[in-house]
Amino acid sequence: MVMNLSKLKETNTYIIIYATVMVIIVAFLLAFISSALKPTQDANVLRDTKNQILISLNITGLKGVAIDQKFAQVVTDTIQVDDKVVYQASVDGATKYVLPVKGRGLWGGLWGYISVNDDRQHVFGTYFDHESETAGLGARIKERWFQEQFNGKPIFTDNPQQVALTVVKKGQSKAETEIDGVTGATLTSNGVADMVTNGLQAYISFLSGGDASTCSKPEGERCGKCKAGMSCDKAECGESEMVEQD
Q1: What's the average model confidence in pLDDT over 147-169?
Q2: Using an 8 Å Cβ cutoff, are 88 and 78 in contact?
Q3: Closest listed residue to residue 57, CA positions, set 107, 136, 133, 115
Q4: What is the pLDDT of residue 237?
Q5: Contact yes or no for 87/101 (Cβ under 8 A)
């Protein structure tokens, strides 16, 4: 006797087949939707990155296509520093450099952009963001009042080879290179301190005046002694062999 449809639906075989078919259909639809939306998602991620770089240059309040237009106008070039990229920008006729940095907070990753003046000795602006810091506490590193504390601050003190700029506990900043952290967010503030100090230290050859485009040593063997406006006339890159550029 042939089992009728109603009884078939009550069997485990039917349930398994039905569930398997539904899973395949849903997976196919999700894959199709994800593929269709990927170009838009990628464009949004790129635009958000551009906006973060602009904010680090103290250019705020832009949305949509205005971000793309301003970025194309302001960011004039990129410079390769070892395995990192520095963005060169022009703000009100003055050259600025934007350095990406990364770190870790209390609950997850931190990242940001620090723009420096043409002298590579002082901060022009910053932007910081986080993956999952506590709302109202560590998450406040994203707020402009915190980021603007860095504006105009020196990166070095007496030693041009050691970054001095850092973040300390709220109310304990004494040196010009010390920034007040966020109240009640000591571990996040410590994470930002490490991200800023260690992040900038990774660009020390650039910040101290080294420029791969003016150094005659082979790529990847920069001495870090070539200062802005100078070039090396010998492969050894000795300080005594530095000459003015034409």
Answers
A1: 95
A2: yes
A3: 115
A4: 47
A5: no
- Amino acid identity for residue 189 in this structure: S
Contacts of residue 64, Cβ cutoff 8 Å, sequence gap at least 6: 47
Asked if pLDDT for residue 71 goes beyond 60, the answer is yes
Report the pLDDT value the prediction gives residue 2, as an integer from 0 to 100.
Answer: 52
> First vs last Cα of the chain: how many Å apart?
99
Q: Which of 86, 47, 25, 40 is nearest to 212 (CA)?
A: 86
Helix (H, G, I), strand (E, B) or coil at 86: strand
Given a cut of 90, is residue 175 above it in pLDDT? Answer: yes
Q: At 154, which amino acid appears?
A: P
The pLDDT tens digits for 80-135 are: 998 899 999 999 999 999 999 999 999 999 999 999 999 999 999 999 999 999 99
Domains of the chain by residue range: 56-207, 209-244
* Distance (Å, whole) CA 214 – CA 231: 5
Tell which residue, 210, 204, 149, 226, has the closest CA to residue 180: 149
How many residues in total does the chain contain? 246
Helix or strand (DSSP H, E) at 15: helix 12-56
